[in-house]
Amino acid sequence: MSYAIAGQTFLSFQWDNLLLECGAFAVFLRRDRRVVWAEWLFRLILFKLYFESGIAKWQSHLGDWRDGSAMTFYYETAPLPTWLASYAHALPAAWHHFESWATLALELVVPFGIFAPRVVRLPVAAVLTAFQLVNAATANYGFFCWLAVALHLFLLDDADVARAGRWLRGHLPILNRLAEPIAPAPMRSPRARRIDRAIAAVVLSVFCFASLADGVEAFGGDRDALAFLEPVRALWQPLRLINTYHLFGHITRERIEPQVQLSDGHTWTEYDLRRKAGDPARAPSFVAAHQPRVDFQLWFYGLSYRHGMPRYVATLLDRLCRDPAAVEPLFARPLPAHPAGVRLVFYRYHFSTAKGAWWTREPVDMTETMRCP
Fold first, then answer.
1. Where are the alpha helices (DSSP H) in the chain?
2. DSSP-derived secondary structure for 261-310
3. Hey, which end of the chain has fewer CB within 10 Å, N or C?
């Protein structure tokens, strides 16, 4: 949480909140014995992640998920697609419509199986894991997809985990040497069990109440009617421990990318960030579970640049002028030590069908030139 607060804009993604939420509640898990109520708490987090994202898609002001058009744009306009996204984008429109409707079903219907008996939970875990693997294969969302897959473990029983462990150790002998024996938990007194039950009741009650209150407000509740909750919500909101999720509520329909250009006093030369779409001939790369935060944020800036320049963009341009070495690691090639000027040119990108190019692009706008001292 200290990193998230210090990182401000760059650590304000929904998966950062998910990591904080999971990290905080993981304190109730134990290695030497099951804590059943804590496992149910993580199932609630998992349900919230999918179901709230499904509600956000259903409520999209574009109606793009309900009419099936969302996935016709998704692969091309995702913030940091992989090269596989180009092939996925080229699939028939009928398939993309099916994907859009299937995603609604996966997030609005399938999550109820999280609370079902094992015979239902196992297929739910398999389907949701496949869903996240497709996400990870076609776009770079940092650690999000892998954190979601880790949460799917709470859909398994101990016997399922033990069976998977035996299979892994049989195929990866090194795991036998790394395995750390865990001593069984000692017998616990009746008083300790009563304390555990009291903690469980309090944590689960607060979590459910806070999640429901935030969810109702986020997805169409009457803010005035819920105003009496504000003093209570102020207790948990600064900690980012109980959050709402609305991943991909609607899909961007065009890809506008800012491209850095530096001048030597006569000629303007482009400099690509390492992971952002730049040179049309450069293939999109795999970079997750790392998340290039500046590259990612500049995608957001491309969507709203007409509304003004955020502080971090102005700071980046200033560093490019005054101290290029400080920001050079962000770029795919060395920067000039003393540029004469810097500017951003905005391009509209589309996946290319031509051989030798991954993108096509056309200029749409330009910032004013910043002359360097």
1. 2-7, 14-25, 36-58, 70-77, 83-89, 93-108, 118-138, 144-151, 158-171, 174-178, 190-218, 230-236, 293-304, 311-322, 324-327
2. EEESSS-EEEE-BSSSS-STTSPP---TTS--HHHHHHHHHHHHGGG---
3. C
pLDDT category at 257 given cuts 50, 70, 90 is very high
213 phi/psi in degrees, rounded to 5? -65, -45
Report the alpha-carbon distance of residue 128 to residue 148 in Å, rounded. Answer: 9
Per-residue pLDDT tens for 192-205? 788 888 998 998 99
CA dist 186 to 29, 157, 244, Å? Answer: 16, 22, 38
Percent of the chain past pLDDT 90, that is, above it, reads 63
The closest of 368, 351, 334 to 88, measured between CA atoms, is 351
Inter-residue contact 261 to 273 (CB < 8 Å): no
Is residue 161 packed enough to be buried (19+ CB in 10 Å), middle (13-18) or exposed (0-12)?
Answer: exposed
Collapsing DSSP to helix, strand or coil, 255 comes out as: strand
DSSP state string for 72-103: HHHHHHSSSB-HHHHHHHTS-HHHHHHHHHHH
**Mean of the per-residue pLDDT values for the chain?**
90
Contact predicate 32/185, CB 8 Å? yes
State the pLDDT at residue 361.
94
Please tell me what DSSP assigns to residue 338.
S
Q: Where are the domains of the chain?
A: 2-239, 255-371
Query: How far is residue 252's CA from residue 60's CA, in Å, rounded to a whole number?
Result: 11
pTM for the predicted model, two decimal places: 0.89
Q: What are 168-214's pLDDT values in tens digits?
A: 888 787 777 776 777 777 777 888 788 888 998 998 998 898 888 88
Residue 165: its pLDDT value, please?
82
Burial class (CB in 10 A: 0-12, 13-18, 19+), 302: buried
Three-state secondary-structure class, residue 19: helix
| 286, 107 Cβ separation under 8 angstroms | no
Q: How many C-beta neighbours within 10 Å does residue 193 have?
A: 10
